[in-house]
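$ fold --in a.seq
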Amino acid sequence: MKIAQVSERGQITIPADLRRRLGLRPGTKVEIEVQDDAIILRPVPSISAVAGIFRRYAKQKPADWETARTQTERAVAEEVANE
């Protein structure tokens, strides 16, 4: 178990070994969830990291998550309708 201290601005530093283990780099976004009395942090994958999953649906490389989601929803809906 690691211990970190909360700063006056509400910030904590994630120990380097944990950042490396999770692939957290400066600018990485994390999802924050509260479960009972615990805070859970999960890295949010970048759009480029998961682009391959949607490659068959996306017409072009999406600029952001919203565009990727919209393109994928439309393509999947069309595919299901044609089955």
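$ fold --in b.seq
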Amino acid sequence: MLISLPLDGEGSLQQQIYHALRRSVSSGRIAAGSRFASSRDLAAELAVSRNTVVAAYEQLVAEGYAETRPGAGTFAAVVKVEPVRASLTEIEPAWSEYSLRLGEVPEHSLFRPSRSKLRYNFLYGEPGYLDLPIQRWARVIGKKARGLTEAQLGYAPAGGLAILKRALAEYLQRSRGVSCEPEQVIIVQGTQEAIELVTRAFVEPGSTAVIEEPHYRGFERCLRAAGANIVAVPVDEGGLQTVALQAIERARVAYTTPSHQFPLGSILSLQRRMALLDWAADNQTVILEDDYDGEFRYEGRPIPSMQSLDRRGCVIYVGTASKVLFPSLGLGWMVLPKSMVPMFLRMKALSDSNCSTLEQLAFAEFVSAGYLERHIHRARKKHRTRRAILLDTLQRELGDSVEIVGTQAGIHVLLRLKQLPNDCMETLIQRAAADGVGVYSAALYYLKPPPYAELLLGYASLTPAQIKTGVRKLAAVIRSLSR
């Protein structure tokens, strides 16, 4: 049977013939049981090669739209076509209590500042992209990609490659005083996965968890979704006020950023570190130490990590490649007390079978060959120069009308505007942006925002000239609002 086949011109001739015949069978235009034209006749009718028609017929048979009968030809099959309903109502799934709580939590992405194209963008929380050894990284990852073995193309251990765990254990001992064996290191997809794993491991609905105030909200969001009873402990220039912990009993977990408190930038004193460890041991509390940018310290001798002072197996140490290299690398690490390793390996395997093998291999060489430490050394010198210019320009432009907090470490400072109330913040940000300056409010990281305006000023990605000009423009906006 020859019929007129409307070809739609999309795809190859074989695809067009296949789609046209399938539509005709499905719609009933070709009745079930009707014999198709021979492949030779249809090819002549459409002016195509016979092989093109044969291939289209074979595809129809494979999908059940046609059937072949030996010695008789190809016939349209019986196809049950579901009628198209005008509207469909989606099911209403029975969400878990966790999901319902999560639905009430603001999206974590709301607390990540968006990268704008402003000329003087004091974006915080990201490394100095201009300083990155991208060419070196490209050579290392290219070499590893070319040398991948068949075994490395398969699934890797959930806890990370042994070669990377060894390299990190040695590096963390040198750079942060962390005391561990490679088996205590678990590779994760950055700090946030580590936080989520710790939350699942220790937090149940109604259990107590301690956070800093102000604090990194990625952890607070996990706690709220888990149904935790959140207790916020104030932070001052000496870090977490450990005296306030004495009124808190049986907390499951306490989160701290001791080497450069986020967002205030204070450094937890050695005395308070020891008090926190004693309190945790007395209350059987796990301490989550987030050392997100501990490599960047500019004044005084580095204070050892909390983990290096721990003698009771209280501390889980977490680090990330996001600040020392770049966020999209997506690699972080946890250093666990030995007794916790088996459970976290199980949890990691359930949530994520393994991090990328190629990136792990490349990062392992980057660490073991000394490339990472050389990069950090160079970046630290550049950041120190940028920081000095930022502080000097802020002092000259704004003087005693502002307070600058968290200057000893990290890659951002907090600017406290003592003459401006917090409700001026939106206007300040908009006016600064209109003049090409990107600034960001610290109020997002408080449970109870401060009465005065506070800005987070990141400086890692700005040149000295951009810092000077950006601060001058920002100061002009601040002065105009202070009148």
